[in-house]
Design brief:
With 116 residues, this protein is of the alpha+beta class. It contains 2 helices and 8 strands, in the order E-E-E-E-E-E-H-E-E-H. The structure holds zinc ion.
Length: 116
């Protein structure tokens, strides 16, 4: 699961499909998943990419104790260079990155045309 932590407002946002880009509380950071559900984009100079290791999160949720300390799960900071999670300075730069070399929006990204 990909998330964005905004170092300006301390908000953490879970990314969703490109039809519903998400923004932090202060609006300086945001992101979305591409239609394939794997590749994602985020933006903003305060944005830090985070990941949850889904199996460890699922296990911790399933094993929630009735009291005491809950089970740890794995969260990590995603490296600057990640083939499936690309950083952009601005939101518009993120949307423009979805266009191919001809400046055309690929068919899988039709929804983007209304935004760009
Ligand atoms: Zn923010």
């Amino acid at each position: 699961m990909k998330l964005v932590f905004c170092e300006s407002c301390q908000d953490v946002i879970r990314l969703q499909d490109m039809s519903e880009p998400r923004y932090c509380k202060c609006g300086r950071s945001g992101g979305f998943y591409e239609a394939d559900g794997l590749h994602a984009h985020y933006w903003g100079i305060y944005a830090m990419p985070l990941g949850f290791a889904n199996p460890s999160l699922r296990l911790a949720l399933d094993k929630q104790p009735t009291e005491g300390r809950g089970r740890d799960f794995s969260a990590f900071v995603i490296p600057h260079s990640c083939p499936t999670f690309k950083w952009h300075v601005t939101e518009s730069e993120a949307w423009l990155s979805l266009t191919d070399s001809d400046g055309e929006v690929p068919e899988s990204h039709e929804k983007v045309k209304a935004v760009v």
